[in-house]
Amino acid sequence: MALSDLLYAAYERQLSRRLSKETLPRHVGVMLDGNRRWAKARGHGTKEGHQAGADNIAGFLDWCEEARVEVVTLWLLSTDNLNRPPAEVVPLLSIIETTVTDLAQTKRWVINPVGSLDLLPAETARRLKEAADLTEGVQGMTVNVAVGYGGRQEITDAVRSMLVSHAANGTTIEELAETLQVEHIAEHLYTKGQPDPDLVIRTSGEQRLSGFLLWQSAHSEFYFCEAYWPDFRHVDFLRALRAYAERNRRFGG
């Protein structure tokens, strides 16, 4: 083993030992950013970049499981991405379908699609639903796969669902306006029943939310990593956990 590998392993162990179970996040959201730039830097095509990113997902979930994370949300495809040229979107959807199916077939994690499935091609929506059905009842970490996801779209869908639900119960708009609480909308989000993300990680050096979990991330801690997603290593994840543990969380402050 090369000296650099030995030093890396020693540093990794040191980071792991310093993390306290009491300070680790329950829910981690990840913006898997930088696949295209990773590919361009290496003279590869976009498809190769997305595949390299997909290949890094299972390992990342292993790390989260080791850290006893309860929920992971992976942003795989935004609603804006659906407007990209078909030559890019079609291969990406195929990679997502295969990746989600492979994760589900391990039956280690509960696969929970989040997003507007009605905006997706029928085959993609079907594969996502199959993955959810296959892992229903699995006793393990919940993995939200955000495909066709947009934060504004989610809030719009939640409000629409809430209105339909209250109308079905005979509630008038006026009555709803008088009694409306934050919780009424939260009950209709894609992630209803789950804890909000404690930590949101974005790779590739970009430092913006881009609509990811807009509602749920109101009190989240953010960690921005320079590495492109295909290069995101265990040590990078441990650094994110360390940064999270060192912060004094101010809910609403």
Fold and architecture overview:
- There is one protein chain.
- By secondary structure, this protein is of the alpha/beta class.
- The chain has a domain at 25-150 and 197-246: Undecaprenyl pyrophosphate synthetase (3-Layer(aba) Sandwich).
- The protein has 10 helices and 6 strands, in the order αβαααβαβαβαααββα.
- A 6-stranded parallel sheet has the order 3-4-2-1-5-6, sandwiched between helices.
- The longest helix has 20 residues, at 86-105.
- It is globular, with a radius of gyration of 19 Å.
- The model has no long low-confidence stretch (mean pLDDT 93).
- One of its GO terms (molecular function) is magnesium ion binding.
Give the helices and strands, then pairings:
Blueprint: H1 3-18, E1 27-31, H2 35-41, H3 46-55, H4 57-66, E2 71-78, H5 86-105, E3 110-114, H6 122-135, E4 142-149, H7 151-168, H8 173-179, H9 182-186, E5 199-202, E6 221-224, H10 234-246
Parallel strand pairs: 1-2, 1-5, 2-4, 3-4, 5-6
Helix pairs in contact: 1-10, 2-3, 3-5, 5-6
